[in-house]
User: Which sequence fits this backbone?
């Protein structure tokens, strides 16, 4: 499954940036890649990375191994590894991460616990990641609006 967001729709045809759903997979597997590395892969290979699941231990290992294979093939070296994110805050349905609360409060539209618990994992990840990002702060607000309107989904 590949979760697509409306605010990223312009990058999907060419996968010219690392989609947010792939960034979640990277966080969960502890693999670090740059945009330069991402763009070294063929469009088809980037598409495979978009659709590879990372729900089980085995799937995470397969995702990491495939990225390592691609990195060695195109860049001549292993991928960079960091500790995978453990107990990710977007997985906790009973607590809104402080960064999400603070960012939504800044705009006067605080995310409620009811909303947080009703959004799916990918939606909660997006809000969390965008709430801590220093790049393009307006994306957090656009994404929150998108989720509240119910106009997002997977492909």
Assistant:
């Amino acid at each position: 499954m590949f979760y697509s967001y409306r605010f990223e729709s312009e990058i999907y045809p060419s996968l010219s940036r690392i989609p947010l759903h792939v960034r979640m997979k990277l966080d969960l597997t502890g693999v670090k890649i740059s945009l330069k590395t991402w763009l070294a892969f063929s469009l088809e290979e980037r598409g495979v990375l978009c659709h590879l699941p990372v729900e089980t231990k085995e799937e995470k290992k397969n995702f990491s191994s495939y990225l390592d294979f691609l990195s060695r093939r195109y860049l001549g070296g292993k991928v960079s590894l960091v500790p995978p994110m453990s107990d990710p805050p977007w997985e906790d349905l009973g607590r809104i991460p402080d960064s999400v609360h603070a960012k939504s409060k800044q705009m006067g539209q605080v995310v409620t616990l009811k909303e947080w618990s009703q959004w799916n994992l990918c939606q909660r990840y997006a809000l969390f990641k965008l709430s801590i990002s220093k790049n393009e702060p307006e994306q957090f607000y656009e994404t929150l609006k998108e989720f509240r309107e119910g106009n997002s989904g997977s492909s």
